[in-house]
Structure formats: structure tokens, C-alpha cells
């Protein structure tokens, strides 16, 4: 039996904790009449099993709790994190779960206790669902809210748990996501940020996740004046980390990957240097190359923007396949051995559980700091980042390659996974979206 389903069964047997202030396991309005508003139907992207997603048609979600907001979705996207769901790497998905954790829209309906919003407001949602009033929420550390996820498996495995998350399995509470035409947002007054008129959806959408995540990755590892920063992974997260590293004073940024995305970086981020690990010579490694590139000592900071599920060599490939570990340690070991002594390494790419052959010796002996990890606390940063979009300091459109239609989203998942068609960050339109803004790609149907 797949690990995902085994964990789901265990959760059912043990039962949830009682810390939640919002309903759990509401991943599809079709699952229960009390979740559904039959006045309209919606298209949504559902997980149907390992490596299988499908478009489904289901009722629109209903207001279930006093602080709920129902959004008409006007923009969503596919994230590198969605691939971990597609692959079944993140556990506790159920057939029919609606995915999508990065979305913006228009307020359609509100529960009676929602303050500060009105019907018709254009807003972006954070990927995490926060209560706004617990130990972590009071510090705006919204990704670790203590009251929106009562999953006991996560608590036992991690010694604590994250906030609930949209479209990210029952492991994080079980909430329907925004790769749909409507979404229900619990604690809507906490988890939605109004978008001003000068910020179109195509720019504001990415405050949900990728912008806040990349910002957290850079500032929480302490990137500062004069640092040399090495970034593993040239996806959208790694790309925004380039801009944010320079903004925070980095002297040099080196990006490590192995495919066409490095050409994309050369074109759009000309200040960054690239290292293609598939083109290393005999006897060379990422570590030896980085030492050679940076004073024979190595970068000050290493940022992990890949994920633990992508093994480089056969050993970890088989260990993961056989269930001996959930994540490879290859990238984190490369980061540790590459940075200078007392260097910092931060992990933003998703790691699910346990890893073998971790180079703890290098970490200890050379004083390497593992800092700047984790699911990013979006609420801590999104207002500041919105200001940076408004002032033109950052332009999220730089990483957007495609505009697609929600009806084609299942096909888009497979294209995104295969990195076909030069696809990396997409903007997903619905029947409620405005036409493309200036500088945004035109619609492409699949
Ligand atoms: N911590 C958070 O809050 C948070 C939020 C969003 C996304 N993420 C995670 O960040 C990671 C990156 O997201 P993305 O959307 O940019 O993903 P992506 O899948 O688009 O990009 C990942 C890149 O890593 C590259 N890669 C694979 N193996 C590599 C290796 N050994 N060395 C160097 N590069 C390698 C791939 O070629 C790809 O270009 C994902 O794991 C995602 O789940 C974390
Ligand atoms: Zn994401
Ligand atoms: Zn909270």
C-alpha cells in the first residue's frame, strides 16, 4: 500500500487532535452536502492517485463558518510543491482532493463575522491558513499557526505541526485548494490581503507563496552585504531568491541546476552566475567547482530551492524507493561541504521525513549553521513585498512564462512536471479573470 494511504488510515485510526478552530478534511465540496452550495458548479483540479490529476466538476463551496470567505478565483498557479503532491511524496492525500495553494480572487460571499472586507474586493490568499490569534499568529509566523491543523501523524512525526494549508493534503488539515473557480477561505479576514488597483492579479498572485517563500529563504539565512550566495534549483523560487539576495546586499549569486532554466536565468538575471552540474568534468563536483569559483573557500550562504525527493545517484534513488528514507541528503550534503567554514545553509525545498548519510561531521567540525528553513510565514512579509511590487523594485512577471485556462490544468500539470514548452511559472485564468495585464503572456490552450 502506498505510504500516503497508510498514513491516512493511521490518522483515521488514531483520530485528530482537538486543537483546531476550523473544520478539517474539507477537501472537496462534493464530499458532503453541508460543504456545498448548489447554486453554481465549478471546475476544479483534483488529485486522483499517484501521478494522476483530473479536472472535475463539483458544486461551489458554501460558507461553513462565521469567518469564511467564498472567493471567485481569478488567478492561480502550479508550484514546485504541487509536484510533491502529484508524485504522492507528501502523504495523506485522498482521491478527489482539490489542489492549489497559490491563488487570488474576488470576494463573492462572507460569513457574518468577517471584518474589513466587502463583496467585490480583489484579494490574494496566503498558502497557509492562520487563525490570527495564537502564539505564532501573534508574531505573524502564520505558517506555524497552532489552531488550523489537528493532524496527529504530523505532530507525532515532527514533534509539532505546521498550520493548515490550502490544497496540501490531510497532513496539513485537509482544505480544498484554489486550482478551481471558487474556494472557501477559513478566517478570510486573516488569510486574505487586498490588492490595490495598481497591482494586477498577474503580479499580486505570487504573494501567496513564491515571493514570500523566496524572501523568507534569503532573509532568514541572513543574506547580507558582501555575501556570496549559492542557490540550488533554478525554478521560480530559486529565481526570486536571486533578486532578493542582490536586494539584501549579496556581492555574487551562483545558481546550480542542470537544464534550460539556466539559460532562462542567463537571459533574465544577467548578474547571476550559473553552474550546470550535468556538465562537470571528470573528478569535478559541485563542491569542488564552487570552491574554485569562490576564493577556494566556498560561498557564505547556500539556499536549497529543489526538494528532497529528487535523488541524484542510484544509492538514494533505491533507498527512497525501498522506503529506507523519505528524502535524499545529497543536496544538503553538497551545500554543507560547499560553503566556507561557519557558512549558513537554509532549506526551503520540501523535505518530508528522514534521510540517510547526512554529513553531520562536516556540519559540526566546520561550524556550519542550518538556518533559514521551513514553510515561509507569508503574513510576516506580504505587505512589505506588495510595496516592493508597487514601487517596481521587484517584478514577479519576470518568472511567468505562460497564461493557461483552468479547464486545461490537468494537462498543464504534466507539462510543468516534464518542463516542456519552456514552462515554469504559469498564471491560470478562470471565467472570472480580467484580460492579461501589460507585459503578461497571452493565453495558451492545451
Ligand atoms: N518552504 C516553503 O515555504 C515553500 C514554498 C513553496 C515552495 N517550496 C518548495 O521549494 C522548492 C522549489 O520550488 P519551485 O517552484 O522553484 O520548484 P521547481 O520544481 O519548479 O524547481 C526545482 C528546480 O530544481 C532543479 N533540481 C533538481 N535536482 C537538482 C539538484 N540536484 N541540484 C540543483 N538543482 C536541482 C530542477 O531542475 C528544477 O529546475 C520545491 O520543493 C517547493 O516545494 C517551499
Ligand atoms: Zn507552493
Ligand atoms: Zn494561529
UniProtKB/TrEMBL annotation:
<dbReference type="InterPro" id="IPR011032">
    <property type="entry name" value="GroES-like_sf"/>
</dbReference>
<keyword id="KW-0560">Oxidoreductase</keyword>
<keyword id="KW-0479">Metal-binding</keyword>
<keyword id="KW-0862">Zinc</keyword>
<feature type="domain" description="Alcohol dehydrogenase-like N-terminal">
    <location>
        <begin position="66"/>
        <end position="196"/>
    </location>
</feature>
<dbReference type="InterPro" id="IPR036291">
    <property type="entry name" value="NAD(P)-bd_dom_sf"/>
</dbReference>
<dbReference type="GO" id="GO:0016491">
    <property type="term" value="F:oxidoreductase activity"/>
</dbReference>
<dbReference type="InterPro" id="IPR002328">
    <property type="entry name" value="ADH_Zn_CS"/>
</dbReference>
<dbReference type="InterPro" id="IPR013154">
    <property type="entry name" value="ADH-like_N"/>
</dbReference>
<dbReference type="Pfam" id="PF08240">
    <property type="entry name" value="ADH_N"/>
</dbReference>
<dbReference type="GO" id="GO:0008270">
    <property type="term" value="F:zinc ion binding"/>
</dbReference>
<protein>
    <recommendedName>
        <fullName>Alcohol dehydrogenase-like N-terminal domain-containing protein</fullName>
    </recommendedName>
</protein>
Amino acid at each position: 500500500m502506498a505510504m500516503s494511504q497508510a498514513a491516512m488510515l493511521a490518522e483515521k485510526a488514531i483520530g485528530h487532535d482537538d486543537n483546531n478552530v476550523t473544520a478539517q478534511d474539507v477537501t472537496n465540496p462534493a464530499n458532503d452536502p453541508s460543504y456545498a452550495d448548489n447554486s453554481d458548479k465549478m471546475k476544479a483540479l483534483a488529485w486522483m492517485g499517484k501521478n494522476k490529476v483530473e479536472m472535475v466538476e463539483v458544486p461551489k463551496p458554501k460558507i461553513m463558518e462565521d469567518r469564511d470567505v467564498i472567493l471567485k478565483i481569478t488567478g492561480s498557479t502550479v508550484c514546485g510543491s504541487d509536484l510533491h503532491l502529484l508524485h504522492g511524496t507528501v502523504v495523506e492525500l485522498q482521491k478527489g482532493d482539490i489542489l492549489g495553494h497559490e491563488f487570488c480572487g474576488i470576494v463573492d460571499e462572507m460569513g457574518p463575522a468577517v471584518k474589513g472586507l466587502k463583496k467585490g474586493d480583489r484579494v490574494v490568499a496566503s498558502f497557509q491558513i492562520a487563525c490570527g490569534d495564537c502564539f505564532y499568529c501573534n508574531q505573524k509566523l502564520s505558517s506555524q499557526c497552532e489552531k488550523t491543523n489537528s493532524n496527529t501523524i504530523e505532530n507525532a512525526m515532527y514533534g509539532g505541526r505546521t498550520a493548515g494549508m490550502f490544497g496540501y493534503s490531510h497532513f496539513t488539515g485537509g482544505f480544498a485548494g484554489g486550482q478551481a473557480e471558487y474556494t472557501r477561505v477559513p478566517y478570510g479576514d486573516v488569510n486574505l490581503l487586498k490588492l490595490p488597483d495598481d497591482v494586477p492579479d498577474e503580479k499580486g498572485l505570487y504573494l501567496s507563496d513564491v515571493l514570500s517563500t523566496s524572501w523568507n529563504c534569503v532573509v532568514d539565512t541572513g543574506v547580507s552585504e558582501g555575501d556570496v550566495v549559492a542557490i540550488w534549483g533554478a525554478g521560480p523560487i530559486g529565481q526570486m531568491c536571486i533578486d532578493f539576495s542582490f536586494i539584501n546586499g549579496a556581492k555574487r549569486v551562483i545558481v546550480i541546476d542542470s537544464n534550460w532554466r539556466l539559460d532562462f536565468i542567463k537571459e533574465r538575471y544577467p548578474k547571476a552566475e550559473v553552474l550546470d552540474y550535468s556538465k562537470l568534468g571528470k573528478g569535478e563536483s559541485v563542491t569542488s567547482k564552487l570552491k574554485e569559483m569562490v576564493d577556494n573557500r566556498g560561498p557564505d550562504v547556500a539556499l536549497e530551492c529543489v526538494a528532497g525527493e529528487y535523488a541524484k545517484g542510484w544509492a538514494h534513488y533505491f533507498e527512497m524507493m525501498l522506503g529506507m528514507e523519505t528524502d535524499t541528503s545529497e543536496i544538503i550534503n553538497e551545500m554543507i561541504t560547499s560553503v566556507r567554514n561557519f557558512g549558513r545553509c537554509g532549506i526551503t525545498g520540501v523535505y518530508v521525513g528522514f534521510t540517510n548519510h547526512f554529513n553531520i561531521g562536516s556540519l559540526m567540525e566546520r561550524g556550519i549553521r542550518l538556518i533559514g528553513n521551513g514553510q515561509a510565514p507569508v503574513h510576516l512579509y506580504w505587505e512589505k513585498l506588495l510595496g516592493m511590487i508597487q514601487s517596481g523594485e521587484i517584478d514577479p512577471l519576470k518568472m511567468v512564462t505562460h497564461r493557461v485556462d483552468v479547464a486545461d490544468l490537468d494537462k498543464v500539470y504534466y507539462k510543468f512536471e516534464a518542463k516542456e514548452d519552456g514552462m515554469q511559472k504559469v498564471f491560470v485564468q478562470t471565467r472570472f479573470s480580467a484580460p492579461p495585464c501589460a507585459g503578461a503572456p497571452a493565453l495558451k490552450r492545451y
